[in-house]
Design a protein that fits this description.
The strands form 2 sheets. The protein has an 8-stranded mixed sheet, sandwiched between helices. A 3-stranded antiparallel sheet has the order 1-3-2. Helix content is 48%, strand content 17%. The chain is an alpha+beta fold. It has 3 domains: 70 residues, Winged helix-like DNA-binding domain superfamily/Winged helix DNA-binding domain (Arc Repressor Mutant, subunit A, Orthogonal Bundle), CATH 1.10.10.10; 137 residues, Endonuclease Chain A (Endonuclease, Chain A), CATH 3.30.870.10; 68 residues, Arc Repressor Mutant, subunit A, CATH 1.10.10.10. Helix 1 packs across helix 3 and helix 4 packs across helix 6. Helix 8 links the parallel strand 6 and strand 7. 24% of the residues are buried. This is HTH luxR-type domain-containing protein. It holds the Pfam family TrmB. It comes from Streptomyces siamensis.
Length: 329
């Protein structure tokens, strides 16, 4: 039974023996179990490394058991995590197998993934295995909220180039500005479109994932190298050229007479936030935001807030981003 947690028979026997007493001394254990002291020491060290026992700091020969409902549960969860990582790795191996197998069939080129956990696992697998570049079309709804995940920030930290096109509706999500700023500072390249045609993720231009539905009926298609994947890559490139670069508030030009508050408001609104969302972010009333917007538009004689942004210099900014660790195809 304990072998599932990585314990040998001897380690399991010693552990159950220790559970019966609050504190045990190594010489006592050696006598009662008729084992050599060095053998007992090795077994205790193994149990301590697994987090099942702890050594008394004042008496190195004394060991006590950590409550099994805590220590064994932690060990079980650790093993479950290892199994999940192995499951993700097996999916990667399956992808490699399909790509290299002789005479690939059409069903191996386009795969349907069903179920929320399966779709989520495949997304995380693709993010963890990307090498040079990831390209994303992003739009609400977001099942886990509009916040960065460890995997998303992790791939930026290891030098992966990330290009994301957001629907302007994404900017009205809770914490949208904070999330985009966190991504931007990590090296993300972001652009905004009024609408994106679908959600999509492309990794290294060798595999793409397109969500079909969400919730309990979640499903997605995975596309491997073929004419369809080439078309999806071309679609992203076309949308990228049309999208407006997203820049942080600290990168807006300091137009003459433009206050810091005005610059921040202008940044939020030209990025696509609605008046209500901008007011919440700035801690202002909706009436105050609309009054300031009207003043900025009067100043520039602009017909729209986007036009006002460009007239005040926003259109001259460029998309932030870092040089990719390797060139994109």
């Amino acid at each position: 039974m304990y072998e599932a947690l990585g314990l040998t028979d001897r380690q399991a026997d010693l552990y159950e023996y220790l559970v019966q007493g609050q504190v045990r001394h190594r010489p006592q254990i050696s006598r009662e179990l008729d084992l050599e002291d060095t053998v007992v020491q090795d077994l205790l060290n193994a149990l301590q490394e697994l987090g099942l026992v702890v050594k008394d700091p004042d008496d190195p020969a004394a060991f006590s058991v950590i409550a099994p409902d805590l220590s064994l549960e932690a060990l079980i969860r650790r093993k479950e995590g290892e199994l999940q990582r192995m499951r993700l790795h097996s999916a990667l191996l399956a992808d490699r197998y399909r790509l290299t197998a002789h005479g690939r069939q059409a069903r191996d080129i386009v795969e349907v993934v069903r179920g929320p956990s399966e779709v989520d696992a495949r997304v995380r697998l693709i993010e963890r295995q990307v090498i040079g570049q990831i390209e994303v079309l992003s739009a609400p709804p977001y099942s886990g909220g509009f916040t960065p995940s460890e995997d998303e920030l992790g791939l930026l930290a290891r030098g992966v180039r990330s290009r994301v096109i957001y629907s302007s509706k994404a900017l009205n999500q809770d914490h949208a500005v904070q999330t985009l700023e966190q991504f931007r500072k990590a090296g993300d390249e972001a652009r905004i479109l009024p609408e994106v045609p679908m959600k999509m993720l492309i990794a290294d231009r060798r595999i793409a994932l397109i969500p079909l539905s969400s919730g309990q009926d979640a499903a997605a298609i995975v596309v491997r190298p073929c004419g369809l994947l080439d078309a999806l890559c071309s679609l992203f490139a076309s949308l990228w050229e049309k999208a407006k670069p997203y820049t942080g508030a600290d990168q807006l030009p300091r137009a003459a007479g433009l206050t810091e508050d005005d610059r921040q408001l202008l940044h939020l609104l030209t990025s696509g936030l609605k008046d209500e969302a901008a007011a919440r972010h700035l801690g202002l009333s909706l009436r105050t935001v609309r009054r300031r917007v009207a003043a900025l538009m009067d100043r520039t004689e602009a017909n729209t807030r986007f036009q006002a942004g460009y007239l005040l210099g926003l259109g001259s900014t460029t998309a932030p981003g870092r040089t990719p660790s390797r060139p994109a195809d």
